[in-house]
Amino acid sequence: GTHTIVQVGDLMHAGEAPVRPRERLPEGKLTLPFALLPWPNQIDATAGAAPVILYAADDVSVADKRLMLAIDALHTRLFPTAQTVFQLTPALGGRAVNFAEDGSLPTEGYRITFEDQITVTSSATEGRRYGLIALAQILHGAYADPDYKFPATGTIDDAPRYDWRGCHLDVSRHFWSHDEVLRVVDMLAWQKLNKFHWHLTDDEGWRAEILAYPELTQAGATRGADVPAMLPQLGDGSETKHGFYTQDQMRAVVAHAGDLGIEVMPEIEMPGHSACVLAALPQLVDPDEPANSYYPVQGYFNNALNPAVPETFTVLETVFDELATIFPSKYIHIGGDEVASNAWMTSPLALALMEKEGLKGTFELQSWFLRKIKETLTARGKIMVGWNEIAHGGGVPPEGTLLMAWENPQVGIELASQGYDVVMTPGQAYYLDMVQSDDWLENGAGWAGPVTPEQSYTYEAEGDFPPELRGQMRGVQACIWCEHFTTRQWFNDLVFPRLSAVAEAAWTQTENKDWQRFARQVRLHPEL
Ligand code: TNX
């Protein structure tokens, strides 16, 4: 039978036709009749009459044939009813694709020349893949919408603006199945994003299987009464609350992403946002700390791992060791955000440690903890990544640390001036859980918003950076926080088209951005 998910927003709209956020987008306009997203940095092409199927020229290597099939399969997964874009055998009336090398192109850059045949030139696999994605997008658009064409002649000469083109997904507040995560990775690849930041733990749930501590996913991945208490307006979203990924499933995500040029960075939140860890492993709680002695913004009492409990480090080191066998990335994100400003101040163990080490207050203790974590990671050959609060209370050595500036854009500049490398993820532009309008019926968060798609699109993360600090601005990232995403419809409504806006900000130079052209383009975007 059919299963209907009833949403709180729909109930509120009973009797009215709900206006989905994407229906508020302007119509936009075509500047050139080619469907490409992110828009390339240089395009000079004439439109052909009709779309044509693309096939591998005779002398295409096995590796390049595989790449063509992989991008064709990506297209088919994203648009299951659409026509094939690439095939290996010649097609009547089709056009052959060739590949060429040019060592002077950047790793992720590509050039496409449209003549009788089509040539994709690159210096590396990354660029070749992006050239094929561009061709697949153009062809897909030409099949899907008569306003879009396939080029007859001309060139696209393209390379990304930033090296870090990220998207984060919170799978803790609501759980996303293994298959859904694979699909999210596909959607990122289609938009030439290259970093998947997998937010695997938070107060509400621990989602990564750790063999040494099965309690983490036994107790920590099954949510209790916390959702109604914390977010009473949302219903309990129970169909998406429980679950975790096995290590093999995580390896499969890493492999899938790797095939599409995406690096997967896991995040394990510490010391804050750890209510589920402390519930699952009660031996990590100072037994003499009174319950309910501090209350952070997330609404979970006493939710920070205690730096003065030695087993805290044993557990975390074990977690890092197991994760290292799953995630080859040199980056590991350890959170570091939103510890309550009075955390640990009633823990006798913490007070004794502070006395011994000469530390004053929560943030100096946090900083002591994070410096030890950084040493642990460095010893394992990993680069520490964290949210901007890592810099509080003295911070950690900036060399080899990468921070994500989320609270506001100015924070990113301050961190860079302190010597940190930064990725810009300001809530005011790039948090995709923010509502998109001032319609009070809309689901979503509000602390930084509303953030309209146009605001996400036109925001320039580099805008206020003094020139001497620009080198430390490594790129941009969208963050998909999921407290509010009780249904998949809400995911689609809030994530699109703003995810594409961030993808274009990450790839396309300022002078090539155009809101009206973008607003027209995003209609072809796949959904979850
Ligand atoms: C702030 S961003 C948080 C998250 C929330 C988000 C909601 C950050 C480092 N902390 O825990 O999910 O706001 O917008």
TrEMBL record:
CC annotations in GO: membrane
Annotated signal sequence range: none
Beta-hexosaminidase bacterial type N-terminal domain residues: 36-158
The enzyme's E.C. designation: 3.2.1.52
Active site location: 338 (proton donor)
Swiss-Prot/TrEMBL GO biological process terms: carbohydrate metabolic process; glycosaminoglycan metabolic process
Domain of life: Bacteria
Keyword Cell inner membrane: no
Catalytic reactions of this protein: Hydrolysis of terminal non-reducing N-acetyl-D-hexosamine residues in N-acetyl-beta-D-hexosaminides
Gene Ontology molecular function, alphabetical: beta-N-acetylhexosaminidase activity
Record-annotated Glycoside hydrolase family 20 catalytic domain positions: 162-509
Key words, A-Z: Glycosidase, Hydrolase
Family under the similarity heading: Belongs to the glycosyl hydrolase 20 family.
Identification of the protein by name: beta-N-acetylhexosaminidase
Stretch of the intact protein here: 107 to 634 of 634
